[in-house]
Amino acid sequence: MKRNLSPELLDSLPPASPEALRSRQDLVRINQIMGNTAWFIRTAPPLARPGECALEIGAGDGRLSLQLHAAGLPTAALDQFPAPGDWPASAPWHTFDLRSAPVWSEYPIVLGNLILHHLTMKELNALGDQLSACAKIRVLLFNEPLRSLPTRFLWTLAAPLGGASAVTRHDGRVSIEAGFCGDELPRALRLDPATWQWRITTTLLGAYRMVAIRRP
User: Which CATH number fits domain 9-214: 3.90.1300.10, 3.30.930.10, 3.40.50.150, 3.30.70.790?
Assistant: First the structure.
């Protein structure tokens, strides 16, 4: 199944529109059902060293960052949009496009949930080069859609049954088609096996998960 990037409807909607609000509610449920948030909470804190702070890229509403902080891992957020109104003043929020963010040197752990599938191969190459060039970054954790025919078929059946909105049903299919399989993500990020060791896992519900750790 060839990777294909198409525009997602949510990206073109006014943030406060009923359709956008409904789709974001759908995404919260999807993350719960797929166990995405639970995976980050289970995986990220044990990899942190005392005093370290993680950075979530493409943080959206900041929900994951706050949940990781509550689980014991201080987490800053980066997004192209400003922080939500209820974001705590004590937590850093960086308003940048992740393609040109100047903050990598501040964080040894970089993570993201359902964000990298939005990027072209050229953009993934450039992002990976930035991450590898920053010697302080030693852990990368990303959760993305698994690109496969079974995942797309499962979504086609389950999304309507689960009450997903038309926007979410469309964007879910597009996300799967732009997702990853095999070692595609670490290779797209141009992670050097001599510098990084990585592990890819997938789930029956269609999650593609990468943990990469910089070699000593």
Answer: 3.40.50.150
